[in-house]
From TrEMBL:
The keyword Cytoplasm applies. Catalyzes the complicated ring closure reaction between the two acyclic compounds 1-deoxy-D-xylulose-5-phosphate (DXP) and 3-amino-2-oxopropyl phosphate (1-amino-acetone-3-phosphate or AAP) to form pyridoxine 5'-phosphate (PNP) and inorganic phosphate. Its EC number is 2.6.99.2. GO terms for molecular function: pyridoxine 5'-phosphate synthase activity. The lineage of its organism: Bacteria, Pseudomonadati, Pseudomonadota, Betaproteobacteria, Burkholderiales. Keywords: Cytoplasm, Pyridoxine biosynthesis, Transferase. The keyword Transferase applies. Homooctamer; tetramer of dimers. The active site is at H52, E79, H199. The gene is pdxJ. This is Pyridoxine 5'-phosphate synthase. 3-amino-2-oxopropyl phosphate binds at N16, R27, G200, G221, H222. The record marks E160 as: Transition state stabilizer. PANTHER family: PYRIDOXINE 5'-PHOSPHATE SYNTHASE.
């Protein structure tokens, strides 16, 4: 048995296909097709497909979500803001997972975690509605004990820890941010939550995060899309999954 094909689940890779749609929308064409990217990613080893339907529809559009839902062989993880429009749409589509995220129209990408404490009532209401449709709910939050405790009280069963600060840091600061993630993972487990992570991870910084034993899933998109320009889409997905699994199992693949 190779570590590339372990006997059971080691760590899941959610491939975010948002930026396939970004390329399509840049020229107003029908290609590249996010659905095709999703299906090829599954064939290459993705354990789920992640996509963020933003308020301004800057990349993924409603039609993409609707077309993809019945076609996926794995799981759909739909990222959505805590607005009634998005919650109602998610309940219509009924993906396996919905990850509630903060969203500001002017941001280039998600800049931080959802403030569950400040918006507790709104988040709790959204969680209840989504769970009523049989959807598993995740909250995208910072690795903060108080936010994690609040997340558990909403009724959500999953959290995704924001790794952006770690991804942007260097040297001792990166080590400090990695330790924050580890503490956050431990806190999530104490509160009975499934703990995922993501944001800003790429081929040379993902290993320490993937090595954290209690992280169930990493969601990665931009780095895979960028690497695919040179390595090909399916190869880029396979490489990321292999790096993650090797890190979890303590196997060295060498540096890229």
């Amino acid at each position: 048995m190779s570590f590339l094909q372990p006997a059971g689940p080691v760590i899941d890779l959610g491939v975010n296909i948002d930026h396939i749609a970004t390329v399509r929308n840049a020229r107003g064409t029908v290609y590249p097709d996010p659905l095709r990217a999703a299906l090829l990613a599954e064939q290459a080893g993705a354990d789920l497909i992640t996509l963020h339907l933003r308020e301004d529809r800057r990349h993924i559009r409603d039609a993409d979500v609707l077309a993809m839902r019945p076609q996926l062989a794995t799981r759909m993880n739909l990222e959505a803001a805590v607005t009634q429009e998005m919650i109602d749409f998610a309940c219509q589509v009924r993906p396996q997972d919905v990850c509630l995220v903060p969203e500001r129209r002017e941001e280039v990408t998600t800049e931080g975690g959802l403030d569950v404490i400040r918006y507790f009532h709104e988040v709790e209401t959204a969680v209840k509605q989504l769970k009523g449709e049989g959807i598993r709910v995740s909250l995208f939050i910072d690795a903060d004990e108080a936010q994690i405790e609040a997340a558990a009280r909403t009724g959500a069963t999953v959290i995704e820890l924001h790794t952006g600060r770690y991804a942007e840091a260097e040297g001792s600061e990166a080590l400090h941010e990695l330790e924050r993630i580890k503490v956050g993972v431990a806190a999530g487990k104490r509160h009975g939550l499934v703990v995922n992570a993501g944001h800003g991870l790429h081929y040379t910084n993902v290993q320490p995060v993937a090595a954290i034993q209690d992280i169930a899933e990493l969601n990665i998109g931009h780095a895979i899309v960028a690497h695919a320009l040179f390595a090909g889409w399916e190869n880029a997905v396979r490489e990321m999954k292999a790096i993650m699994v090797a890190a979890r199992l303590g196997v060295s693949l060498g540096s890229k």
